[in-house]
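FIELD: query
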Amino acid sequence: MISSENHHLAPEGSNEKEPVKIILAEDDKDDQELFIDALDEAQVPSEVTTVENGQELLDTLRDQSEPNPDIIFIDVNMPVKGGKKALEEIKSDKELRDIPAVMLSTWSHPADIEDSFDKGADLYVQKPNSFTGFVLLLKKVFLLHWTKALLRPVVSLFFVSEKNISHKD
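FIELD: result
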């Protein structure tokens, strides 16, 4: 099932930024809700479309009636088509390859991280254990993204987890 939610965080009449168009590929409903709630808390004006596996993600991206998203978040472990397989197909498609792709995983295995990097992911994020951690992490991801640090990631900036980000920002 594909759902779409609009989140307009700025008050009416203010200088509202265009909402960020996000597709979240995540099969866990709780993780979908956590992600959307954390975006709200991080005050990232966004329109989130959720899909539940890599095949739904590809179908949504290839739908000509929908504009491409600004960024996609892809859970590594999903049914039907896993995140890394979907990433590989996205990055080999000339129409889709320039969309920034952030991999999400509960694991931080170096081989997984390297494999995602080699397949063209722009960032690999270890899912935080807490809501606060998720909010902080999303703030960092969007700060990195909008300063264009993701255009050509370097490996040292590529892996993000709660352990290697400061709680002071």
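FIELD: remark
The CA atoms of residues 138 and 160 lie 10 Å apart.
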